């Protein structure tokens, strides 16, 4: 096995865990509400803490990867996942859970700049980027499915503990098989130009992100109240959310193809606008009609990412 193939295994494990571990929380919100006797607003605070610290972790991650190398950042990432999974396993209070989820968000925020940098140095970059993307998409869908099933079987704490074992495997592989020369120290310069077009894209993507995370973090909770699956509320809602997120993969692929064929500025408007009627319909339907509407919304919603990223690249020198 070549060094590049080992790198793909390392980054695939890392990318899978980012999305799988952060999507456990939506599947177990109902259980946390019951155990800690908290309101829906308090559950929203938990979700906000995880997402907020994920964003904060991503901010310095690229600088750290350039200064210390991808290997050092990914080692820190895997160790952090292990610590957060153990912390959450022993969490006995709402405050402990909030601290653990904040730390989990901070650690998962480290991954993408370092992981993408490692993949970008491999031959056949496009092919390996696709493998990397598939691993993340599988993690996104597997998170609520696994989280709902494991939480119903052995409790939500165990649902967080077991992925720590996969993180340990990733840590062992990167320590044993990945060797990277230390990057040469460079003078740090922060130089960027932001135009009105950039600000418009940033504003739209921020609002989209608010709707996106609000939707998918509370979708399992919504499914427990609106859909009867016959598999138990937590397990059923987790599987349905995973199904919707799998359809999101189709949306990503479709968004990429459409972005190659049509003017991306016009496509950007349509992709954002198409979310609105399906979000409105979700408020008026229940049962399997709701599942169908949400499935289409999942595909439409994930079309945004490739179109947004391509449009940003178009306007950035």
TrEMBL record:
Localization in the cell: Cell membrane
Molecular-function GO terms, alphabetical: transmembrane transporter activity
Keywords, ordered alphabetically: Cell membrane, Membrane, Transmembrane, Transmembrane helix
UniProt KW RNA-binding keyword: no
The Major facilitator superfamily (MFS) profile domain, residue ranges: 7-317
Keyword Protease listed: no
Transmembrane segments: 12-32, 38-65, 72-90, 96-114, 134-154, 160-178, 190-211, 231-255, 267-285
PROSITE patterns: MFS (PS50850)
Membrane topology according to the record: Multi-pass membrane protein
InterPro entries: MFS, MFS_dom, MFS_Efflux_Transporters, MFS_trans_sf
A single cellular component GO annotation: plasma membrane
Residues in coiled coil: none
Pfam family membership, one: MFS_1
PANTHER family the record matches: CHLORAMPHENICOL EFFLUX PUMP RV0191, PURINE EFFLUX PUMP PBUE
Protein's name in the database: Major facilitator superfamily (MFS) profile domain-containing protein
Organism: marine metagenome
């Amino acid at each position: 096995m070549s060094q590049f193939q080992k790198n793909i295994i390392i980054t695939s494990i890392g990318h899978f865990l980012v999305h799988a571990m952060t999507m456990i929380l939506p599947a177990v919100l109902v259980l946390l509400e019951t155990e800690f006797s908290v309101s829906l607003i308090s559950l929203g605070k938990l979700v906000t803490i995880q997402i907020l610290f994920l964003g904060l972790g991503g901010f310095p991650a690229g600088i750290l990867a350039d200064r210390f190398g991808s290997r050092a950042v990914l080692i820190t990432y895997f160790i952090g996942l292990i610590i957060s999974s153990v912390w959450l396993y022993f969490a006995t209070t709402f405050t402990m859970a909030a601290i653990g989820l904040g730390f989990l968000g901070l650690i998962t925020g480290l991954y993408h700049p370092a992981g993408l940098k490692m993949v970008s140095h491999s031959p056949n970059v496009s092919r390996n980027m696709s493998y990397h993307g598939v691993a993340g998409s599988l993690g996104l869908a597997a998170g609520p499915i696994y989280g709902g099933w494991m939480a119903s079987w052995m409790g939500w704490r165990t649902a967080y503990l077991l992925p720590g074992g996969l993180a340990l495997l990733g840590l062992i592989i990167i320590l044993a098989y990945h060797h990277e020369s230390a990057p040469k120290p460079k003078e740090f310069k922060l130089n960027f130009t932001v135009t009105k077009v950039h600000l418009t894209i940033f504003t739209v993507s921020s609002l989209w992100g608010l709707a996106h995370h609000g939707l998918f973090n509370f979708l399992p909770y919504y499914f427990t109240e609106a859909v009867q699956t016959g598999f138990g509320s937590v397990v059923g809602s987790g599987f349905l959310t995973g199904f919707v997120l799998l359809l999101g993969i189709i949306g990503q692929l479709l968004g990429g193809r459409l972005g190659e064929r049509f003017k991306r500025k016009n496509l950007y408007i349509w992709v954002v606008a198409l979310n609105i009627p399906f979000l409105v319909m979700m408020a008026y339907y229940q049962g399997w009609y709701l599942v169908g509407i949400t499935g289409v919304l999942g595909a439409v919603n994930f079309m945004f990412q490739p179109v947004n990223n391509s449009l940003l690249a178009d306007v950035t020198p």
